[in-house]
Amino acid sequence: SFTLTTTQAEREVAENSDPYTISLLASDVDISTNSQILSYSAISSNDLLATVNVINASATGEQADLEITLYDYFSGTSNITVFVTDSDGVTVSDNFELLVENINDFPAFLTDGAVDDNLNRSVSTTEGVDIEIPFVVQDLDIIANDQSLNFTFENLDSANMSLSLSDPVIVGNL
Asked: E-strand spans in the chain?
């Protein structure tokens, strides 16, 4: 027999969580009488959200761990199904719904190949000369969660200069 028992903390996890395991326990009377061995397999209905693998199976297969690894920056649901098969090919299964909750990732500036949480630039020029300061902004939620960005500027010398934004480069994933 096989029943998959999970806690709420194992079924509802935050996006970008570390890989974790769920203990699996199964039994079969044929293990002791006929020396059968149980084997496991698992699938995720949403391959973009998580991968699942059965690891650490005991010699008889009565115990194992289900390892769940989430893909970074993705949220949603996936139906996880675990199968247990005995040496005669008889299979039982159980499942649960995995909910990966969205976390709003902070946007960041990419300057000279490095990530900056704040873009603070000093620029000097001759009076009357327009200058451009190109920058790239990365926000991983733009693609994964269909979000958008808004920009604000702080002009400490509005009497002598004006600021405007034209054609910002915004990327979701690099």
From this structure: 12-14, 20-25, 39-44, 50-55, 63-70, 76-85, 91-101, 108-111, 114-116, 136-138, 169-171
In this structure, what are the phi and psi dihedrals at residue 95, rounded to the nearest 5 degrees?
-145, 170
pTM of the predicted model as reported, rounded to 2 decimal places? 0.70
User: How many whole angstroms separate alpha carbon 6 and alpha carbon 171?
Assistant: 37
Which residues of the chain have a pLDDT value below 70?
113, 119, 121, 143-145, 155-156, 158, 167-174
Report which secondary-structure segment, H or E, holds 11: helix 8-11
Q: Own/partner pairs for 71-75, CB < 8 Å, 24+ apart?
A: 72/15, 72/16, 72/140, 73/15, 73/16, 73/105, 73/140, 73/141, 73/144, 73/173, 74/15, 74/48, 74/49, 74/100, 74/144, 75/15, 75/49, 75/100, 75/101, 75/102, 75/103, 75/144, 75/145
How many CB atoms lie under 10 A from the CB of residue 11?
Answer: 14
DSSP state of 144: H
- Of 67, 58, 74, 73, residue with least CA distance to 26: 58
Q: For 74-89, how does the pLDDT look when each residue is reduced to its tens digit (9 = 90+)? A: 889 999 999 999 999 9
Whole-number pLDDT of residue 91: 94
For residues 78 and 44, what is the distance between their CA atoms, to the nearest angstrom? 6
